[in-house]
Amino acid sequence: MSLKRVLIKISGEYLGEKGGNSPFSLGIAQEISKNIQSLLRSGVQVAVVIGGGNIVRGSAISHNVERCAADQMGMLATMMNGIFLHSIFQKSGIDSCIYGSTPVPGICDSFSHQKAVAHLEKGFVVICAGGSGNPYFTTDTAAVLRALELKCDAVLKATKVDGVYDDDPLKNKSAKRYSEISYQDVLEKKLKVMDLASISLASDNGLPVVVFSLLEADCFKKALEKGSKKTVIS
Domains (ranges, CATH) in the chain? Predict the structure, then answer.
């Protein structure tokens, strides 16, 4: 795939240390930084949406906390992750900036697609934090929304596995991986690679979604290469 600008969606749970000792793993963040540097060197402009599952999951606590409040906690968690990645990127020599769905003076500016696009064109990695800024929407939907606003050519969805399967490959060794699959099939089969609202939004706007494993070396660049293990949803 020959793409000029992509948005990478990274689940917050990948930033946490194994064993749950800390919500932030320096080693994993540095590996993400290294992989993004490789993608930048190939001439691709990069935006990032990060989840917050390593710190708090709104749905997991919503039975004790009012849903809107729980989701707001999740949005703040993504901002913390965004600040963490921004710092690691800067120390790695990557020019980056962070925009939030809600402004936090002194920490991040409110998201502006015009300003964010200008930063992308200057070679900055644009980190979009805070989700969509609204409860009841996941960071998957926020990723598709920001990708459309930033005129990205595709969303790169980094996951635990190397694509979309017809069943959970971690539980079913016979599960089949799709190299390509349509939006409609994902929706009809209710495949749990992303929430259905995000797939529907991508479908309505013809935005491809590339699903691949974050665990492979140089994963972001390889996700765009012909013949690599991945699933393209289009």
Answer: 5-233 (3.40.1160.10)
